[in-house]
Design brief:
This protein has about 450 residues and is α+β, with helices and mostly antiparallel strands. Helix content is about 30%, strand content about 20%. It folds into two domains: about 60-215, Creatinase/prolidase N-terminal domain (Creatine Amidinohydrolase, Chain A, domain 1); about 220-450, Creatinase/methionine aminopeptidase superfamily (Creatine Amidinohydrolase, Alpha-Beta Complex). Residues about 1-30 have low confidence and may be disordered.
Length: about 450
């Protein structure tokens, strides 16, 4: 009878013997850093097809999960907190790579816990927890639990669900050795917060920690954001062709929404559609108003692909354009180009914001009143991430731009006719050499749809 083969001992490698020039995948497993964003700045930004294939690399979703979890762990380690308890759907998805229907976004009925010493815990709505056990093998099966608290008050606090959930969380914190450290929370129903505090837990702001984690996008995240932007490019071609007198704003919204879902959108969060005398001041909505000859019209596409957002404005006129409309567009484009030219790693946000006009230049009495018209905001799983650059906040709290940030740059200029306005938005990826625009529907000059 042949003797049993002796089990090989694991190979030990001294740090002094590691060749730093070796490719990461050839290096010992101990050197693999899941928090490395893996940027490939020497190559064009990808916007591949949506299907997974075996003949080219597209999105590596397990690498994406490992990156997001590692970024969260690192941010948590720097924060002085012992754990993060998150109810914000973007944060739950970032940490755990789980998501359920969009209906759950504002219910505060799902939550996720991550301690500095453990793996993510997810409490989910009814059978969703059982679904995660079957289809989310990157999470420990006993970490996917059914949970329910208040459904924003629909279940009375008298039932005791908040206290039961708080005790469950406290027990985990004790087992994982962080119960005496502060607990970071992003958003929460007050009774849940009170129940945690009653158990002796010290609660701190965890949203800033999560925004730190989400600030730098990985290669996979940038690819998903670019794919989402490409969907917007296509929808704007459809809008450009459909803008004719007699078409209503809501019909454009319906067409764009349908087209985005056909392309594979997870959620069309909003389509702003504003035309004619509604353009100034900006109402941030849509109505059933009929498009008329000579109208200026602008639109915003806010939708997600595999969770990653677009915020993508374009302005058109219908049939013809006046001198006032052209001039408003020229000024909005000038502010846009000046802002984009200033975007480079190492530049402070108080420098960038100087490219935008003061509130009084566009007819507003204060920067608060003009907020959201000429500014930048980070894009990712959330619509407003870091950096957020505006005259309202950036002079008081400047910070340094970094390669790997992805954000939208927005400008708005009212026209001299008192009703028209130009609204432009470009999404950019900050590379080591500057901003790369990924919203590609032409916007250097005012587009005239169905020109007479």
């Amino acid at each position: 009878m042949a003797s049993k083969r002796k089990k090989a001992e694991p190979k030990h490698i001294k740090v002094s013997g590691i060749d730093p020039k070796r490719r990461p995948k050839e290096a010992p497993d101990g050197l693999f850093d899941p928090a490395n964003p893996g940027h490939r700045w020497e190559r064009p930004l990808q916007a591949p097809g949506r299907m997974q294939v075996d003949f080219e690399e597209r999105i590596d979703f397990r690498r994406l999960h490992d990156y997001r979890l590692a970024r969260t762990r690192n941010a948590l380690a720097r924060s002085g907190l012992g754990a993060l308890l998150v109810f914000d759907q973007y944060n739950i998805r970032y940490i755990s790579s789980t998501v359920i229907g969009e209906w759950a976004r504002d219910k505060l009925t799902r939550w996720c816990l991550l301690t500095g010493n453990g793996e993510p815990w997810v409490w989910d709505f009814g059978s969703a927890a059982r679904h995660h056990k079957l289809y989310a093998p990157w999470l420990p099966k006993n970490h996917c639990l059914a949970g329910l608290a208040g459904l924003r008050g629909a279940v009375s606090p008298k039932v005791g669900l908040f206290e039961a959930a708080a005790k469950e969380i406290k027990d985990i914190l004790v087992r994982e050795g962080v119960a005496k450290m502060p607990l970071g929370i992003d958003v929460v129903e007050p009774p849940f917060l009170f129940a945690l505090q009653k158990l002796g837990l010290t609660v701190r702001d965890g949203q800033q920690v999560m925004l730190d984690a989400r600030e730098i996008k990985s290669h996979d995240e940038i690819t998903l954001l670019n794919m989402a932007a490409a969907m917007g490019d296509g929808v704007y071609q459809d809008i450009y062709e459909a803008l004719k007198p007699g078409v209503r704003e809501n019909e454009i919204v319906a067409m764009a929404t349908r087209r985005l879902y056909e392309m594979g959108s997870d959620c069309v969060e909003a389509i702003n559609a504003i035309a004619g005398e509604r353009c100034s001041p900006h109402p941030h909505n849509f109505t059933d108003r009929l498009i008329r000859p000579g109208d200026q019209a602008y639109f915003d596409i806010i939708q997600t692909y595999v969770g990653y957002k677009t915020c993508y404005y374009r302005t058109f006129t219908v049939g013809s354009a006046t001198a006032a409309q052209h001039e408003a567009y020229r000024r909005a484009r000038e502010w846009m180009d000046s802002a984009i030219d200033s975007l480079k790693p190492g530049v402070s946000t108080d420098r960038v914001v100087q490219a935008f006009p003061k509130a009084q230049e566009i007819g507003f009495e204060s920067e608060m009143a003009a907020f959201g018209l000429n500014f930048c905001h980070g894009l990712g799983l959330g619509l407003h991430e870091r950096p957020l650059i505006s005259r309202l906040n950036s002079f008081k709290d400047p910070y340094e731009l970094k390669a790997g940030m992805v954000f939208a740059v927005e400008t708005f200029c009212p026209a001299a006719d008192g009703v028209s306005a130009a609204r432009i938005e470009e999404e950019v990826v900050l590379t080591p050499t500057g901003a790369k625009v990924i919203t590609l529907f032409p916007a250097q000059e005012l587009p005239i749809a169905n020109k007479y």
